[in-house]
Amino acid sequence: MPHRMQTLSRRAAIGATVALALSSAPALAAGGGKKLTGATFRTTAPSGWSVKAKAKSGEHLFALASPGAKVDGVGVPSAGGVGITILEHRASLLAKQLKRKSLPSSPVAVFDAVVGTPTAATGVQPSGAVTRTTYEGSPAAKGAFTYTYQQRTIVQTDLVVLRKGRVFFLEADTDSAQAAAGATALAHVKSAWRWR
Question: What is the pLDDT of residue 8?
Answer without folding.
Answer: 36
